[in-house]
């Protein structure tokens, strides 16, 4: 299974002004991908931007008649040069893809309870969890209603337990999603003695805040840093951990929140 | 078609090698290309003892290039010999061990340790990394010190000794001469060019080390010029590098005076780049009915 | 919003100037932007007598950049004063006369002639063009000679004297100090970086002069680094340049230590670039609620 | 009339594998353009390729209801980075355009006879002449039939006198178009005492060969060199002439063939 392959864009759809869903039909079989793993995409054929861009796999479909190698879909925010090029690529364009890469979220064992937390575009990395484990609670924080990347209808279709908070209160609870989470875990702990696991992805500030909360739950988060190789060879995507420098692309992007040294990460 | 070239006593089956620090310890890329097909693998820069490198904020993309300040993080020579070299010995390609030290003594120590190892075919001495501070950097920019550290290292090994030059100098020709006077069998030209980028929103440098090394296509014209100048200044073979993405780019370096070429940053964009670059060189030779790559070296007409 | 900056006695209404050789004699661009709105116009490098420059094969595009070896073709100071300056005097902006000589005497001669002219507000002394050969280039890379030629020129003018440094040196800080010791009121950092490109089909260099100067976004990280280093080495104001295409790029240079910025190669891509760069700086200041550009200079946090 | 403007692609049509016609609808009024003048186009928004690319105006339409500033059309060969990007830009894309630039072919006076000569893609620069002066003889040389950029039908529609030569004889006369030209001028000179003018554009080798022929006719040619500014300011597009260095973008691209110093041009 070659992790370097070409894939054709079969869908490139705006979600809102800044976000879009890119769905690819790979030209070769793709290795099984855990939620939390990522792929790197080449934005066009130019040497500027030069490097591949990393994106978490949001969803996939299995091989079928139309797409013999299944499809891969990504939810992307137009953040800069590369993502803005991707946003404009027409259906039918072929892209260079590298992946799957990195370590996904650890599988949930019997008797464990999973809670999924997403902030903003972080929903892309964790949405797969909600699909795989079904009806796990999803805590999703956004700035304002317009920033909700999936409609409440779509969210409700994938989980019975959706908790939304927005900074301005325009959707869900007004305030920080972590407050809702904290209350929820506190309650759950009263009734459930087993291992509670929180899997989260979101802006740096949110993850950092989570690290400072004393949630009685094992917490895994997905980190982002600039990347070059995606393979652990350039040593560029360093993050400080309790065990020394680690590579987000190879040792992560999913880390146990406890292991991250936040002062400089 | 003869693609074989001689790099100061190191015979390569073809002129395409990997640039240190951009191809890990080599084995990571076995998945993407047939390692037996490239001229040599140059491994990540090694030091006598493991080094943890710089804090995060290590890379940043720039127009047609990237800055890095990895800070020479590496597993150390001992671990390399124990864990990586046995894997590398399985491939029918040459292994170039890139290394550095913080002092002349460490250079010597590193060269001795690597020379004693089974499966290292040549040494590439990095005197030019812009990510190390203070006195160290002087080895790469002061010709007197260059000659001194090269001469000391020369005594410590019988392997072909390749000295990798810094582009951050007024005269690459003088540096090339100093390295050759010190005993270099070949030169690698160029390492990265010192650069800097600032996040205008936070006002902080993008790299924790403030400055880092610029690589990629952006620097290619500078690298070609330096290879040209170095090749005219000394008689030893040169491994040319700096922004090589395609076979055509490689041919440009060979015409400028390189006997071999190293593929660096391109590996990040395309992990099969060394194979693709080699393919491109062959196509060019076919198209021009050349049957020996050696006839092309320094073939620029001026 | 205060945008006015002081460049060694030259007061600019805003920090955006044009880079010598990329904006002709200024008037050619009146069609594309309001020349009254930019901080200063730096004209094409002038010499005491007209110069015809290098043979064709003068420019070549490279990744995110371009090489040029114009060879300082210019109409000569006399014609400039007679034909161009009267036109330029009509605009409410500062005129910086960029000039060079082949000898110290010519530098002095040029500085005297330009200082006597009505409408030249400052002199920018080019000691760094990579397209001139032999002894000449030493003015830009040997600190002793730099100080000497600057000191001699300093005596020949009362106008603010800006010295434009070459990036083709081991230590930009040393060169900056030498220029200031010689009497520079301000520095321009950087000129182009020497590069080369070869046509692999004909095997000939793309430029008749073989090597030329690399400019454009490709060199920006190197230029930012050099501005940062020069700004830490000396107290005089710096005009930063090298690959500035947008207001954000300009802000990066200012944070690194530049008091003004010059727009060069960008003028070829967008003849209204200086106005657009200025607009971008203003937007940035608005967004960050800054009311004086001077508070931003050298504002990088490290 | 601003020579820097934005224009929308309204047609991007393949002529063959390598050539395409790009038709633009300018966002502002465009100054009158002489045949032989050129425009510079920005290939996409990337900074690589960095510089604008020069192209001769092949044709135009006057302002009308749909295109209030008329349209400009270019015949382009996909030669490298920039032209290959232009080739793929979809209709509706807006481009930055600079022009008209340079000096066109000098107007033909009463009593003068014009002969137009094109080699390969050079047809783009001179086609306008055939349209403007009507029924002037056009000598058009190509390698092989497939390289003919305009169909014989189209050519015949614009001039009654089309002479074609191809290297392999697959269309028109086999051989060099300059041989046909030479014979024609020789004949014409017998019957016509006035000023014969030849306006030509084509590969360097063809123009150089013309310079070495002793045609009894005033000959103007359009030259190509790499360009940066297009405005005569960068001094990059130098050509050696009898009168010293001149700039192709400003003093040309049309020059009297006599003035060009060929040894280094
Ligand atoms: C493991 C991982 C998974 C990701 N998953 C997603 C996802 O599913 N959806 C999504 O929209 N984004 C995701 N990102 C972030 C995404 O990679 C960046 O937004 C994107 O690379 C920005 O590229 P650009 O060219 O548009 O921005 P530019 O600012 O032009 O990029 C400049 C450079 O900085 C790097 N860079 C800039 N911002 C980031 C960032 N936040 N993280 C990493 N590198 C950055 C780029 O890779 C590039 O090298 C992920 C990042 C990582 C590391
Ligand atoms: C006045 C003028 C009119 C022209 N008219 C036409 C036309 O109507 N149709 C057409 O197809 N082509 C025309 N050309 C040539 C066209 O400009 C080049 O083919 C094009 O710039 C190549 O760009 P590229 O990015 O595809 O090639 P690349 O090789 O990637 O370009 C690299 C660099 O070289 C320059 N360059 C390369 N080849 C040429 C060339 N032959 N002439 C000038 N610069 C070159 C480019 O501008 C660029 O700076 C004209 C050139 C000039 C000077
Ligand atoms: C991420 C990275 C790490 C590097 N590490 C080393 C190193 O350890 N030792 C060394 O001599 N050069 C190192 N280099 C320099 C490269 O080997 C090469 O000289 C340089 O990148 C120019 O080539 P390129 O433009 O093809 O990348 C490194 C370069 C990069 C980009
Ligand atoms: C075509 C061209 C001509 C130049 N001519 C001069 C000159 O005459 N004098 C000078 O001091 N610098 C000259 N320069 C250097 C620029 O002023 C500037 O320092 C350099 O190009 C870096 O800035 P940029 O990347 O924004 O172009 C020239 C640059 C170019 C591209
Ligand atoms: S991106 Fe290269 S090590 Fe992670
Ligand atoms: S392209 Fe700049 S002078 Fe002609």
Explain what the structure shows.
- The complex is a heterotetramer, with 2 copies of chain A (265 residues) and 2 copies of chain B (302 residues).
- With 265 residues, chain A is an alpha/beta fold.
- Chain A folds into 2 domains: 3-101, Translation factors (Elongation Factor Tu (Ef-tu), domain 3), CATH 2.40.30; 113-259, Rossmann fold, CATH 3.40.50.
- Chain A has helices at residues 81-88, 123-133, 152-158, 177-191, 204-212, and strands at residues 4-14, 19-26, 38-41, 53-56, 59-61, 71-77, 94-101, 113-119, 138-142, 162-166, 173-174, 196-201, 218-222, 238-241, 244-247, 254-256.
- Chain A has a 7-stranded antiparallel sheet with strand order 4-3-7-1-2-6-5.
- In chain A, strand 12 (196-201), helix 5 and strand 13 form a beta-alpha-beta unit.
- The two termini of chain A are 34 Å apart.
- The model of chain A has no long low-confidence stretch (mean pLDDT 92).
- Chain B has 302 residues and is of the alpha/beta class.
- Chain B has one domain (5-295): TIM Barrel (Alpha-Beta Barrel), CATH 3.20.20.70.
- Chain B contains 9 helices and 14 strands.
- Chain B has helices spanning 77-88, 104-116, 134-141, 143-154, 172-182, 220-233, 247-256, 266-269, 273-287; strands spanning 5-7, 10-12, 16-18, 40-42, 59-62, 65-68, 94-99, 122-126, 161-164, 186-189, 193-196, 211-215, 238-241, 260-263.
- Chain B has an 8-stranded parallel sheet with strand order 3-14-13-10-9-8-7-4. In chain B, strands 5-6-12-11 form a 4-stranded antiparallel sheet, with no helix packed on it.
- The two termini of chain B are 27 Å apart.
- Chains in contact: A-B, A-D, B-C, C-D.
């Amino acid at each position: 299974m070659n992790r370097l392959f070409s894939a054709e864009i079969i869908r490139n759809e705006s979600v809102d002004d800044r976000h879009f869903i890119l769905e690819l039909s790979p030209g070769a079989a793709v290795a099984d991908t855990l939620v939390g793993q990522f792929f790197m995409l080449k934005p066009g054929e130019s040497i500027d931007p030069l490097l591949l861009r990393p994106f978490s796999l949001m969803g996939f479909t299995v091989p079928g008649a139309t797409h013999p190698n299944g499809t891969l879909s990504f939810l992307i925010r137009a953040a800069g040069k590369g993502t803005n090029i991707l946003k404009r690529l027409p259906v039918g364009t072929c892209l260079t893809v590298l992946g799957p890469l990195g370590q996904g979220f650890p599988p949930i064992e019997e008797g464990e309870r999973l809670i999924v937390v997403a902030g903003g575009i972080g929903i892309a990395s964790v949405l797969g969890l909600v699909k795989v484990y079904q009806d796990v609670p999803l805590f999703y924080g956004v700035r304002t209603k317009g920033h909700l990347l999936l409609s409440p209808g779509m969210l409700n279709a994938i989980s019975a337990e959706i908790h939304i908070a927005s900074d301005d209160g325009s959707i869900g609870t007004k305030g920080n999603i972590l407050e809702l989470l904290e209350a929820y875990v506190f309650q759950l702990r009263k009734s459930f003695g087993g291992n509670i696991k929180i899997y989260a992805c979101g802006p740096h500030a949110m993850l950092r805040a989570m690290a400072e909360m004393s949630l009685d739950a094992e917490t895994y988060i997905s980190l982002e840093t600039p990347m070059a190789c995606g393979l652990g060879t350039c040593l560029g995507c360093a993050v400080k951990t309790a065990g020394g420098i680690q590579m987000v692309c190879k040792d992560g992007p999913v880390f146990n929140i406890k292991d991250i040294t936040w002062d400089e990460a | 078609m003869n693609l074989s070239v001689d790099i100061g006593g190191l015979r390569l089956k073809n002129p395409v090698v990997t640039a240190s620090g951009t191809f890990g310890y080599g084995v990571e890329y076995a998945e993407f290309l047939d390692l037996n097909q490239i001229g040599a693998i140059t491994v990540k820069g090694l030091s006598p003892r493991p080094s943890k490198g710089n804090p995060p904020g290590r890379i940043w993309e720039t127009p047609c290039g990237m800055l890095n300040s990895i800070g020479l993080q590496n597993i150390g020579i001992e671990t390399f010999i124990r864990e990586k070299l046995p894997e590398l010995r399985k491939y029918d390609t040459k292994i170039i061990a890139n290394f550095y030290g913080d002092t002349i003594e460490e250079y010597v120590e590193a060269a001795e340790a690597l020379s004693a190892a089974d499966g290292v075919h040549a040494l590439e001495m990095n005197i030019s990394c812009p990510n190390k501070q203070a006195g160290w950097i002087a080895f790469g920019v002061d010709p007197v010190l260059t000659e001194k550290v090269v001469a000391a290292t020369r005594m410590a090994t019988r392997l072909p000794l390749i000295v990798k030059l810094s582009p951050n100098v007024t005269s690459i020709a003088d540096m090339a001469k100093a390295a050759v006077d010190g005993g270099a069998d070949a030169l690698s030209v160029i390492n990265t060019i010192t650069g800097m980028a600032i996040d205008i929103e936070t006002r902080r440098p993008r790299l924790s080390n403030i400055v880092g090394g610029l690589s990629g296509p952006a620097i290619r014209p500078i690298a070609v010029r330096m290879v040209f100048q170095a090749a005219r200044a000394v008689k030893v073979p040169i491994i040319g590098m700096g922004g090589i993405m395609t076979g055509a780019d490689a041919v440009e370096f060979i015409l400028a005076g390189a006997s071999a070429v190293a593929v660096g940053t391109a590996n990040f964009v395309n992990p099969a780049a060394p194979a693709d670059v080699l393919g491109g060189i062959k196509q060019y030779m076919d198209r021009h009915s050349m049957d020996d790559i050696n006839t092309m070296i320094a073939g620029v007409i001026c």
